[in-house]
Give the backbone structure.
Amino acid sequence: MRVALATCAALAEGWPDDVRLAEALTAHGVEVSFEVWDEPEADWEAFDRIVIRSTWDYTVKREAFLRWADRLGGRLRNPAPLVRWNSDKRYLEELASAGLPVVPTVFVEPAEPPPPLDGEGVIKPVVSAGAPDPRAAALAGPGEHDPGRIDPGVEAQAVHGPHPIGDQAAVVVRGRR
């Protein structure tokens, strides 16, 4: 089996966690390579499975990223509609409406003032990644509502309340992190 771990140009050799994943897959007989998602020369048809890993620059090229995901069809580990849904933080509203626990979040349109925060929070675009994102704003504490933290050029922004473990992601395979 040939697996592509999709990444961005800045991490063409993989993020450290991705390297460990590649080593583990290789130990199980899987042929693995890192592929930059928007590299025009990438031959996606050569892979049995494509796994989105460190595609951190999708936040500034979202529509191109989503078209790429759509073109991959069944080879993409997560279906393209799921990738689209997950690429915009407004999915948190749907999860909360379904009764699932989420970090307290308010969505702010460009012309709206930021809401008051009770404690620290994070203000960032609704299309942003947990990785270093040059468009993400800094932490804001109570009463520290600098209007410059709300970017009028961004469609909408998520204002997250405090969370005990921070903004983290986990990959779970067969019940193990």
Q: What stands out?
A: The two ends are 23 Å apart (CA to CA). Residues 131-143, 147-157, 162-174 have pLDDT under 50 and may be disordered. The first strand starts at residue 2 and ends at 7. DSSP finds four helices and seven strands in the chain.
